[in-house]
Model the fold of this input.
Amino acid sequence: MCGISDVADGYLARRYKLETRLGERLDSLGDTAFCGAVLYLLIAYTDIIKTQWAIIGIAMVTILRVINFIITRAKFKTWAAMHTWGNKATGILLYLYAPIVLIFNTILLIPGLVLCFIAIVSSIEEMVILLTVKQYDANQKGIFIR
Done:
């Protein structure tokens, strides 16, 4: 439901030119809440605590995301996350990965490593963008895509 409403909201806002700064912030807040809920479900209902690579991957992504929020706040005086293609890919993979993990009640190695890798790379990409641009644009698609 979160994924469907997130995609529909973004599509409708762009389609009818209803994009606002508040909408950007609420979208970022919704994405953060979803990730927090998924993390809670993974901890509560799977053997993730026994899976060191998953804990390390989640910790790395969390640290990078927090640093990005701090950079965004310090440099641009706002709280938000960018909607890059890398961040969108991470979200899509998380939407697909979480239900499968919960159904099988185990952390899947290869899909989990791919998800962690893409999440880390997209977090680093966002950090590079934040550190190199002069004006904040939450809808920038990537380092080389303006």
